[in-house]
Amino acid sequence: MKTLRLHPQDNLLVALDALPKGCELSADFKACNDIPKMHKVASQTIAAGEKILKYGQVIGQATQSIAAGEHIHTHNCAMGNFERDFAFCSQIRPTQFVPTNAKRQFQGYHRPSGKVGTRNFIALVTTVNCSATAARHIAEQARLGQLLDGFDNIDGIVPLVHSSGCGMNPNSRGGHILARTLAGYAVHPNFGGVITLGLGCEAMQLNHLMRDYGLVESEFFRAYNIQDVDGTAKAIDHGLGIIREMLPRVNAVKRQATDASHLTLAVQCGGSDAFSGITANPALGKAADTLVAQGGTVIYSETPEIYGAEHLLTQRAETPESAQAIVDLISWWENYTLMNGVELNNNPSPGNKAGGLTTILEKSLGAMAKAGSTNLRAVYQYAEQVKEKGMVFMDSPGFDPVSVTGQVASGANVVCFTTGRGSAFGHKPVPSLKLASNTALYERMTGDIDINCGKAIEGGSLEASGAEIFETILRVASGERTKSELLGYGDNEFTPWPMGAVV
Amino acid sequence: MKTLRLHPQDNLLVALDALPKGCELSADFKACNDIPKMHKVASQTIAAGEKILKYGQVIGQATQSIAAGEHIHTHNCAMGNFERDFAFCSQIRPTQFVPTNAKRQFQGYHRPSGKVGTRNFIALVTTVNCSATAARHIAEQARLGQLLDGFDNIDGIVPLVHSSGCGMNPNSRGGHILARTLAGYAVHPNFGGVITLGLGCEAMQLNHLMRDYGLVESEFFRAYNIQDVDGTAKAIDHGLGIIREMLPRVNAVKRQATDASHLTLAVQCGGSDAFSGITANPALGKAADTLVAQGGTVIYSETPEIYGAEHLLTQRAETPESAQAIVDLISWWENYTLMNGVELNNNPSPGNKAGGLTTILEKSLGAMAKAGSTNLRAVYQYAEQVKEKGMVFMDSPGFDPVSVTGQVASGANVVCFTTGRGSAFGHKPVPSLKLASNTALYERMTGDIDINCGKAIEGGSLEASGAEIFETILRVASGERTKSELLGYGDNEFTPWPMGAVV
Ligand SMILES: [Ca+2]
Ligand SMILES: [Ca+2]
Ligand SMILES: [Ca+2]
Ligand SMILES: [Ca+2]
Ligand SMILES: [Ca+2]
Hints:
Two copies of one chain form a homodimer. Chain A has helices spanning 132-144, 173-186, 206-212, 232-252, 280-293, 311-314, 320-339, 350-354, 360-368, 400-409, 439-444, 462-477, 483-486; strands spanning 3-4, 12-15, 40-42, 51-54, 57-62, 71-72, 77-78, 105-110, 116-117, 121-126, 156-160, 191-198, 221-225, 255-259, 264-269, 297-300, 376-380, 390-394, 414-419, 432-436, 451-452.
């Protein structure tokens, strides 16, 4: 199979190998030019001014007439004004939910909050870098002391340490982001018990955090400051004492059969390559659509990567408020990056173009494909609690640990992470599946990568890869370990979005 | 002793307890008012317009005539224009170096670079968060596998992990700061061997870092990417293999007698209280002066904490260039904080005022006291290699882990950290001494704090506390463990200054 048709409505094929001029592409037509690998070739005559469709979506217009078999690229394809139309809510479609008899289940931990966890960890949330070492030592001493022996239903203790919490204004945007993130982890259903540990004199005051987010001490939530218990050694002992008390209670919660509608899937990409947009991302999109049809939630993020193609989301927004929220986010990012001297530019780079990407729409569609095709139901700030079902957007940078930290704080209980280059990533307390965009990567880094989406263009299909992803999500949500969990990833990737001046 | 005179030239005393009106303060005068604890009381008549001196320095002028025994505070003391004069280089004095027969020594590790280390660790420097887990696992597996057994001259393996390295522009100011910091650790004399570990596809490219900072692979410096060795498991094995090769060579370097001039002391404060400015900081300043007299180096930092009193440094600058560099840093900080919506304000807060601080000069002098009284010899950017001897300034935020990370990258091989509230801090690979400003704190957190500077106002003296600090520095530089080393601090505080937008 030398070419790939991504969608039945497309008027082009993607060349999966370099195709020499004259090679036969179908019974009807041959390649009119040399077509480089991963580039596009017209599968029918396209008149000048006609729309060019990939993923069944407009990626531009023909700037001249194009014959079947002709190379499509910047010389004959460009975006017109039409493609930039925000057209709020113009492309929404009714969501096709599965009938009751097709509902799928997983084995999850039901929490008093009504939320369902996919893991059962104990958290050590830190308010400030100054309590990081104490938190890590509590976790390490619990492990060395084999405190968890006999509590087989507990997955471990997670120290959530970070580099901030002081030298900052807790009432700034950055301060609110940090507080919201810490509070989001404190109520995450993958934690059966939570201990929050401060130093005492930091800007991010523990008692303010608890007050602002309604966190109240209970047998599953405890909080204290190192200075209030007279130093590091006592703080560690105190933490170990709390853990000993919590263990039997946390261990008592058992997995139960749960509708897949309780899954909240974070979709993420990192280290993308030319295959990501035609294999791993659209395959993940199929799985995302399946989850939405099951009544579940999909969190799509990485705002800089939709830049220039944000109208593709505003058109899919179910409400004008959500569409406007996307427009507002983009405007905030334009201002934020300008102010910080960083270029916000999602246009195809020279390397992207050499790899076959022609327009910003085409590039963005390749990234957006991982969120599937359903309506945009709501837009959230970074680390804000997600309440809606269906596909939602949460603002975040594209940088993986920062973006996933926000998605998990928002309530994601499974992460799917596509990669073409081979990202090394895991994130406690949430299992993260890694999806390779190409077989070579999967074979080279099979210890790191869970699923090979390269198969989709090697005799498989996006549907088959999407189904493999969805079935794997159900197994992993029920307790099966991901590759990154087996490798012990997840203790160093908690990264609340750093913003604002450190003083 | 109810009151403290900080300097022979002062025209005031500090009340060490609340002093009731009428209580006898000397043979000559009594308290004219109730004097709150830590507040100032005139020790002689001060005419309206006359300078008010604390630490032998001007903290303001009398706005009305003040009698001996009268409370000095905002009602009768304010800053005039005189005190704001930058007067470049106007207050410099010849440095009094000790004669050869008074030179002090410590036992240090001599490196091929000519620099001298106070510890002998192996570093795992990471270019990006994506290699953090692999680096930590290498260190942990080396420990579990008891690889260091028999290499008693090696202090351990330090994974230097952080939250950045991608989703950023490596050519931005923030990118340069990160690269300079990583390179500074890679050449730090407390490392006998260095392994630098990247992922492969990150913005902070390992080969660019090596090229830009002249880092070349050798038997003591190795570098590789996870993607280039086909994944996490092989990357860990590869790192362990390098460590096995390095161990005998790193272990072979022995401590040798070394002049104290090879010490580079980072001074730092965190969690200050009303005592910090009259006990721990000036006592540390005495030790800093002693080290400068020995030909050593003192790195003073925390730029926001000199704001409003920067002329105290420009007056002490040895060259107009250094004085101008201070002025430029302040102007950069004004712009940076304004742009980020943070207030750069070092004025005494209502709490400071209640605690007895009257003017910004008085507050800044309390913090500046820890750098001692010698000339300012040079000004450096954050994490820039310090080449000058004597007292130098390195730009940084006040936030402890960020500031110390810069000081260590610049070459500090000992840290002294004053605290009034009880900071929890340590920083591998450099020993960090913690100095309490008050006895109550020392007694409460004696497991965390090395030296009680509260003694200086309880029958001791600043000179005696300064000498205790200096002697302890020599012992610790020679291998004696600090409290934070005994507690196992230092693996979670490496925090390159985060700056710029994460995208
Ligand atoms: Ca991405
Ligand atoms: Ca990403
Ligand atoms: Ca190499
Ligand atoms: Ca400070
Ligand atoms: Ca500080």
